[in-house]
Amino acid sequence: xPRKTKSKKTEKYxxxxxxxxxxxVYKNVIEEYTSVARMYEDKWKKYLASTEAAILKQLxxxxxxxxxxxxxxxxxxxxxxxxxxxxxxKILGFDIxxxxxxxxxxxxxxxxxxxxxxxELAHCENFSAKNNSVDIVLCSNVFNHLxxxxxxxxxxxxxxxxxxxxxxxxxxxxxxxxxIADWIGRILYKGHHRAHSSAEVDALLxxxxxxxxxxxxxxxTHILGVxxxxxKKR
Length: 234
Hints:
The protein is an alpha/beta fold and 234 residues long. The protein is built from nine helices and seven strands.
């Protein structure tokens, strides 16, 4: 785990938010999730349980893969990978909101494999993983916050090894109820950018030279529809 320093709180973690343009683009997301960090899991309990269970079911792990959790939030998925999937390889978890990373650090501080775990302050367009170094990228409940999803997919492709996997879970406005929720969300939640249709995500993945290997949709709550894409780097 990254060591604490006496400097500014945002420097507690390796930071990739050094340019003012980035901070401006994601200002709304940072502000929203700073305000709801401590109530986040309770507020979205049913939704998060559904999406996390789907990812764990989808993953077929040998146990030592290098994994990136893009937008790791409070670290719940990382903890599940360690506890339920017995994963022992390297994990890089990053998030754009320091308050969420603080909760992840607290949750994961007793991880006996924490020498292989790194948390950093970053976003999906710029994080520290090296080219062709990652086996699996997990991107769960993040895509709807991204103003430039195509740039995120470019970055995921950059870090993945050949035939490396991306598992992308996000809101699916193929469902009429989710389409309405998306419209309301753009008004009420300043960190919400937009939901996508499955056709839009399919096209984005193919444009960035991913081969789609699995796809499914379901209702995570009675209102919110979700989709899961598994895609392989060509």
